[in-house]
Amino acid sequence: MLSAVERKIEQFIADLDDKEVAAQYGKLPQGKRLRAKLILKIAGNRLSVVKTAAIVEMIHAASLLHDDVIDDAYTRRNKPSLNALYGNKTAIMFGDVLYSKGFLELNNISSEVAKIVSGAVVKLSLGELKDVSLSKTFNLNKEIYLEMIYQKTASLMEASAGAAAVLAGKPKEAYLVYGRNLGLAFQMIDDLLDITSDSETLGKPALHDFAEGKTTLPYIYLYEVLNSEDQKKLASLHAKELSREEQAWIMQNMEEHQILLKCYAQAKELIDEAVELMNEKGEEALSSIAEEMIDRNF
Ligand code: FPP
Ligand code: MG
After folding, report:
1. What is the CATH number of domain 110-298?
2. Please, which pLDDT band fits residue 296 given cuts at 50, 70 and 90?
3. pTM of the model
4. CATH top-level class for 1-109?
5. 183 lines ligand 1 (CB under 6 A)
């Protein structure tokens, strides 16, 4: 079923009748298509559903194109990012093309779906802005971190599940909670993998977030349990290129204080709630997506 979404994206790109854009699309590392999977599992494979899934994936791809420019990231999913291949200007404009074509097509779906998806894109942008400004400080506020990842990542998954429920004529509330929890847990796991995975598995440099200034949940929890001398040391390493010794010091403390387990457990709680909600509705396939997501290693 996902192949129908790939074909639809290709058709949307072909509509643009632009060789350069077609070539750029060919270089785009294909993602997990998690959002499209959710939409199809909730709403089936009618044309309007496939189109909505394609639109959401195009918007998501656009946001990652911009994000890689913002984050100075030169690899994505083990392949060179578009900014690495073509430079920032092209990557940004190609993102704009994907994003605006997605919005053009969104007009052909129902106005309720259009409202849900475009509302999420506003949140996505606010979340990315928050991520950038938080990276300039050593943020120790867990609530602010959670609000940022809700906006930056969970909002589009929430909207995907909600929009799909609307298309399927199902009451959307439980699906919105499912998508939101899945998105929050997804970003929490993403932030954990930045610490636990080697760069080859991850497809991008490991322990990169903290060097970039991102005080993700594991760092917030670690700071809370360190003595004041070690708290000062951790703060002094924020937003710096770390030496091997400094990386090892962070890892050793994360292990000693079981920080990664604590973060995983918090993500798992969100997934358990999502699974319970979907099992109640007889949506076991959606429960499986949530369970597989939390145990991924990339
Ligand atoms: C990845 O975060 C970034 C996002 C999920 C959202 C990015 C959103 C924007 C750039 C704003 C919206 C823009 C458009 C065109 C719709 P990350 O850096 O933590 O994850 P990563 O490790 O995958 O890079
Ligand atoms: Mg990034």
Report:
1. 1.10.600.10
2. confident
3. 0.95
4. mainly alpha
5. no
